Amino acid sequence: MIKQMLVAVLLSLGLAVSAGADVTVKQTTAGKGLGMSGNAPATTYIKGNKMRSDVVVGDKTHTTIYDIDAQKMYIFDSSKKEADVWDMAAFAQQISKNVDLSSMKASLTPNGQRKQIAGATANGYDMAVSVDSAMNGNQAMMMTVTVQGPVWIVKNAPGASDYSRFYKAAVEKGWIFTDPRAAKSQPGQAKAMAEMYKQISDIGGIAYESDMQVKVSGEGMMGALMGKLGNMSFSSVVTTVETSPLSDALFAPPADYKLNPKK
To answer: What's this model's pTM, rounded to 2 decimal places?
Structure first.
């Protein structure tokens, strides 16, 4: 589960970069915490309301395909010819039971800084999102998850309007952008990260770099334990963006793969 959680974060980073009719984004991602650390190259492909994220971890390529219209998420890796298929409409209802959305707080504040990233001028913002959730679905283990740190956004970048449209629609449907298996044990983290992407899309820009810290806090012995063990960090930096046409076949598991329904 620890490895799933880190891979889930790295996969989701591939989604926080760009969107458009047909866009290919290459970037470097990194994650640290929960007993794991390291860098991973990632590629995100976008075509309309579908996205695909490939992250190389060790000798495997972990792939997630998001099909908003069909409300399906496909997850598989390069080591076997099988794909897990998640019904995201049903999963959105399931995870919402373990997150107190009324406690959600989010802000994206300009910090006055600028930098050049992948040939574009990005403006600096300070992101902060927090939400209360039940760890592992146990209502007696309510924790506060906080995601915060600097993010560098290119306003009105190519694909920005499609980016905003995609994330607003997805979040309205209750979507998350991490592996559902990890989200079951860390629903607050998944919802906080989804809100992070929505905040970026609301200002009409695209995140070219981010450096986020995830912290978990709560009361009692379990709260103290999670405060020590449950924290992690993740980051991403865009290296290239291409806008050549992409094949529809890229946004579905290979035809010879076995599909495993999940819930």
So the answer is: 0.81
